[in-house]
């Protein structure tokens, strides 16, 4: 369910209404409002409000952004997710949870991949818990560390960026992925400095099992990202548990030293396969779920020129 509010130049509200009705929205509200701009100007705008099921909201937003009259500099729209919606359709229609608007998934992943002090702190401290839990073979501590690692979002952002050809998001996803991997490795090094070998937990899979598991997790994560009812936090735990243990192990081993029986080449290969498989599977899932980037690319391109 979505509540969409579109602010359009005065006189263009009727064009927005036409797009909403074309995608099956049964009721659309229009009124005018005054917008005060920082340079002192006062502008009259048509405000169009739509309350509808998630799939219709997706089509409405994407058709609006790709329409001939839409101009990012003069149009603004916001999308909200209400707890309930009792409108012109029965609950089994209004509550259909897929597919979320591409704009929702896109901006959510931008938030998760922004490099901030909070991201660095959360990743590093979570990785400390993870690494210490691995040394002491304490599963509850390992799980506690994994709960706060936003690792899979970075792979999802990379996959979505490739799917919709939005290269800024793809680059941001890769940057966040590399930074997070480095922080997990660094946390492992720090934990190893203050502890003693051996590493108690070393339950790693093979490259083949890693490929199949990562592909399954990538599909599930992609589906969860586009589904209002998707349990994204639980899928995230599965993804981070499957992948983040590798850089933590390497960080620990850089201080403890590599033993003769350590399969570090296999672990490195498995890590690379896991990350690549999950990212590709998520990207393909996004494509199959019809994530569309034409309007987003248009917005990014025009607003980038405006800057």
UniProtKB/TrEMBL annotation:
InterPro entries: DUF389. It comes from the Bacteria. The chain crosses the membrane at residues 141-162, 174-195, 207-227, 234-256, 268-289. Keywords: Membrane, Transmembrane, Transmembrane helix. This is DUF389 domain-containing protein.
């Amino acid at each position: 369910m979505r509540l969409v509010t579109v602010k359009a130049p005065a006189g263009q509200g009727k064009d927005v209404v036409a797009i909403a009705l074309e995608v099956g929205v049964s009721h659309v509200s229009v009124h005018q409002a005054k917008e005060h701009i920082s340079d002192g100007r006062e502008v009259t705008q048509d405000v169009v409000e739509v309350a509808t099921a998630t799939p219709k909201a997706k089509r409405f937003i994407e058709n609006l952004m790709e329409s001939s009259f839409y101009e990012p500099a003069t149009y603004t729209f916001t999308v909200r997710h209400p707890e309930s919606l009792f409108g012109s359709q029965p609950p089994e229609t209004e509550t259909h949870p897929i597919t979320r608007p591409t704009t929702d998934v896109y901006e959510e992943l931008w938030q998760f991949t922004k490099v901030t002090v909070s991201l660095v702190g959360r990743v590093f401290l979570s990785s400390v818990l993870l690494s210490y839990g691995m040394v002491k073979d304490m599963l509850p501590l390992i799980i506690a560390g994994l709960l706060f690692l936003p690792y899979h979002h970075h792979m999802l952002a990379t996959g979505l960026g490739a799917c919709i050809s939005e290269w800024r998001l793809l680059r941001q996803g890769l940057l966040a992925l590399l930074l997070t991997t480095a922080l997990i490795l660094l946390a492992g090094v720090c934990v190893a400095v203050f502890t003693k070998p051996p590493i108690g937990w070393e339950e790693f899979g093979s490259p083949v099992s890693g490929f199949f598991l990562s592909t399954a997790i990538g599909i599930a994560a992609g589906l969860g990202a586009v589904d209002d009812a998707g349990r994204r936090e639980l899928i995230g735990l599965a993804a981070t548990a499957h992948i983040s243990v590798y850089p933590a192990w390497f960080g620990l081993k850089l201080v403890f030293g590599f033993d003769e029986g350590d399969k570090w080449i296999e672990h490195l290969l498995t890590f690379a396969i896991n990350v690549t498989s999950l990212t590709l599977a998520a990207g393909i899932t996004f494509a199959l779920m019809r994530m569309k980037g034409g309007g987003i690319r248009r917005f990014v391109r025009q607003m980038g020129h405006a800057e």
